[in-house]
Amino acid sequence: MASGWQWDDTLFSGTAAYYRRGRLPYAPGLADALTEALGLDGRGRLLDVGCGPGTIALRLAHAFAEIVGLDPDGGMIAEARRGAAEQGVAEKAVWVQARAEDLPAGLGTFTVVAFAQSFHWMDRDLVAWAARGMLRPGGALAHLSDLKTEDRSVAGLPHPPVPYAAMDELVRRYLGPVRRAGRGVLPQGTPGGEAAVFARAGLLGPERLVVPGGQALERTDDDVVAGVFSMSFSAPHLFGPRRRAFESDLRDLLRATSPSGRFAERAPSTEVFLWRAEPTGR
């Protein structure tokens, strides 16, 4: 986690109801890429650490006999259960409300332990060591995120692009110039350097996969508003009694950008780093 910042249980408070609608999807070929790279065959177990509403666990449910999602936020766990029921995989899904720092938490061993845009919120050295010890022979730790280095061109899209810069400025007008995170702030943002953390934990690798995105996504103004309220730095509770005023200003901004209430952007590519507890011979 970031230096000088302490986790607290308000970090994603109130965001769960917006998460599935508001967040951009992972690249459509992700499940196939992981299945090929890891030899997934419908058996084995997946642990999704910091699972949120179960995004990755549910995306990969068909590739495992059991999926386990762990998250400290009760709202996220409730959304994950709802998603598993809707997808028809509730019988193979286990959802645990706990912090990653509580691992191994009696959960057993896993074929894959996944961190999907969640690892930076954790006591990373502690959690990496715990995760390594939970890997089955031949298992892998997967660290997933949007590819940060690509230029997602808006050329040729059928609707105006989402006005991210103006939206960020609006958030700063309401919440101040320093990024908020729960009851604290992140003046330097969240930490990087995951490779050094995993190497210190004795993991070998990484093997890098880039699953291409680039598909045109059409989004409504409600989708964009949900995306804003799904973020830790603009979680609904941070606005206090000014939440309604913020949402009104946000919708005015979106309406000025696209009177039709429709937007378009390119889906991000997904970057995956695979780490193992033992040599693979590959």
UniProtKB/TrEMBL annotation:
Signal peptide: none annotated. It comes from the Bacteria. Keywords: Methyltransferase, Transferase. Residues 47-139 form the Methyltransferase domain. GO terms for molecular function: methyltransferase activity. Pfam families: Methyltransf_25. One of its GO terms (biological process) is methylation. This is SAM-dependent methyltransferase. It comes from Streptomyces spectabilis.
